[in-house]
């Protein structure tokens, strides 16, 4: 049986572009005054939580599920944060607690948000795609849709589907292909996301339930339920801007999905996770960027939305990190500006030029077991080196030269 690490301490810091969208206080006319605003009975888009619309949206439930540190449920989390209006939604792959305030849709966001809301309206007909202000319930539904779409995009990149993991058991049958021990990328529990409206609310949850004192976004391994959880709040960087929060969530969920692929039993290589997370986030809006750091250390951040120019300059200089050094990285504390540019660009190169190798690489570095059939990443350096040699016919130095040549031609 696989064993998960005791905890996943990955603190993320965020830096957005230099503009701020106006966010206004939560206000909504209740449909049922006898119940809280966060109760599905007061959700205008499912018309009071009617089963017809809940099912149309693809939800498993709208509250009453396990969440966070076991044995907590949505009820315990809401009781811990009584002054925070959390909307709970369970989708096919996620358990979500969304407590984001209503927010104005900026001119820059309008086209993207309108397209997203138009799609959402197919399930929830009371959604207005041209709305200029998204209320808390609408944002909750939008993030549910966004996260399921992101899950599908990551699965497509990996070349897997839900069927890939459907036959998984909590105890692996030796002699069969290993895809983890559960249906959610190899995890037994769904991925969890809690988005809060303030630093105060986030630190209260993190301290009380996880024993942490960080004020930044946190990814955490809930071992007892085999779930990976993200806690983020709007009081950092430009996360009060919807586009900023959207990208930030995609960055962190990408990290969790990469680590959870074939079960989170050890950390996957930092270079590929950080590169993938940057790539997905920047495809949403390159003006907002998240940077990982280890707990207790400051992340290396920079403001430029254009990374192609700086990357081109980097590969032509003597400051570019070697690919061999990237592969050897063990902690996020090692990441500096050149590393962020390089990991993002190398991932971009693999997606554009070697997509099948990328699938093979990620599948091979995930779920490694030793001769006793125990999860064991001690051979990871040798596994990676052999992959590049056997699948691409390249040493690390040759791969680095090929990537740099591509950057010079493409960027």
Describe the structure.
There is one protein chain. Helix 4 (136-158) runs parallel beside helix 7. 41% of the residues lie in helices and 10% in strands. The N and C termini lie far apart (46 Å). The protein has 411 residues and is an alpha+beta fold. A hairpin with a 4-residue loop joins strand 7 (217-222) and strand 8 (227-233). The strands form two sheets. A seven-stranded mixed β-sheet has the order 2-3-6-8-7-1-9, with helices on both faces. The longest helix is centred in the middle third of the chain and has 23 residues, at 136-158. The protein has one domain.
Question: Would you kindly provide a brief summary of this structure?
Answer:
The protein has 411 residues and is an alpha+beta fold. The protein is built from 14 helices and 9 strands. The protein has one domain.
Give the overall silhouette: globular
- Rg, nearest Å: 21 Å
- What is the chain-wise order of helices and strands? EHHEEEHEHHEHEEHHEHHHHHH
* Number of alpha- plus pi-helical segments: 14
Q: Summarize the amount of helix as a percent range.
A: 40-55%
Distance between the termini: 46 Å
Strand order of the largest sheet: 2-3-6-8-7-1-9
Query: What does the main sheet amount to?
Result: 7 strands, mixed
| Proportion in β-strands | 5-15%
Structural class, by secondary structure, is alpha+beta
Count of individual beta strands: 9
Segments where pLDDT lies below 50 for 5+ residues? 1-11, 13-27
Overall structural domain count: 1
Mean pLDDT: 91
